[in-house]
Amino acid sequence: MKAVEITSYGPPDVLRLGERPAPVAGEGELLIRVSASGVNRPDVLQRTGNYPVPPGASDIPGLEVAGVVVGGDAAAMAQAGLKVGDRVCALVAGGGYAELCVAPVGQCLPVPAGLSDIEAASLPETFFTVWSNVFDRVRLQKGETLLIQGGSSGIGVTAIQMAKALGATVLVTAGSDDKCAACLALGADHAINYKTSDFAEEVKKLTAGQGVNVILDMVAGSYVAREVECLAEDGRLVIIAVQGGLKAEFNAGLVLRKRLTVTGSTLRPRSIEFKSAIAAALKEKVWPLLASGAIKPVIHSTFAAADAAKAHALMESNQHIGKIVLTWQAPAA
């Protein structure tokens, strides 16, 4: 099969289309003929040598795919209501940038009605991440207020729509007026251009000094101190990436006085059982919203798999709004 390989750690042009042996599905797994592969920030980190591959995972980058089931553990598939020929999307620990990809059955979901394979390939990584962190880990509730750092990112456009659909008020930050407008068009209640405004001060104004209940942070670093300041009492901060740096100093007294929770997680090394539980929750609570159109995939650009380097260059430019997807063949309608 053809696969995009990282020939050495470095800039986007280290990505090359090569030949690899086709993977074989084992117990509890199925094999997908891939139509489309989602591109995510962890793929960029892996390419630059900053995101080690978990033990046992493929060294081929790519954490999400969509396509057709072509084989696998028949009993496990039957138990999950899947069969050869079904269109699915899947979260994987690696190997997504390839024509064939093995995935645990529990981490596969049917392509929502009305969605293309390109749209479906944009779902797993961000939807699993947002559900796990915003709804499971810090338990955002209907009627609460969520601040999303980086609202125009793949994670951001997912979090905006999911939080709004489930009854929250949503504030976002973004790096341009155009990106702020895009976030508002997706349903955000307020958008703050972090390059022209202090987001912490704006949050205080927008919440009449009360602060927000939950913050989804992909920056960390110096942001944490200001996030602690603009959380409401019993507020929760969940960190899912550290684009702004690993170290943070903040007022621990505020954490005590406001009874704040500061937490975080990474999804890739978690167990199949953990990810399968997220998939089950998404299928029940979120997939119907995708099928109805209440939540919509946001695709910024698609690239042929051979142009993966261009996709990574776009990701690193931060000019995109929504998801970037690689295509392997004519996708299903």
Ordered list of secondary-structure elements with their pairings:
Elements (H helix, E strand, L loop, with lengths): L1 E5 L8 E5 L9 E11 L1 H7 L16 E9 L1 H6 L7 E5 L8 E5 L3 E3 L6 H5 L2 H14 L7 E5 L4 H12 L3 E6 L2 H9 L4 E4 L5 H8 L5 E6 L5 H7 L1 E9 L12 H6 L3 E4 L7 H14 L1 H6 L6 E6 L3 H10 L5 E5 L6
Commentary on this structure:
The chain is of the alpha/beta class. Helices cover about 30% and strands about 25% of the residues. Strands 3, 4, 5, 6, 7, 14 and 15 form a 7-stranded mixed beta sheet that branches. Strands 10-9-8-11-12-13 form a 6-stranded parallel beta sheet, sandwiched between helices. Helix 4 crosses helix 5 and helix 4 (about 125-135) packs across helix 10 (about 270-285). The longest helix is centred in the middle third of the chain and has 14 residues, at about 125-135.
Biggest pleated sheet: 7 strands, mixed
Strand content: 25-35%
Distance between the first and last residues' Cα: 23 Å
- Number of DSSP helices? 12
Give me the oligomer status. single chain
What sequence of helices (H) and strands (E) makes up the elements? EEEHEHEEEHHEHEHEHEHEHEHHEHE
Structural class: alpha/beta
Counting DSSP E segments of at least 2 residues, the number of strands comes to: 15
Poorly predicted spans: none
Helical proportion, percent range: 25-40%
Mean pLDDT: 96
Form type:
globular
Radius of gyration: 20 Å
Distinctive features:
15 strands, 333 residues, alpha/beta, globular, 6-stranded parallel β-sheet, 31% helix
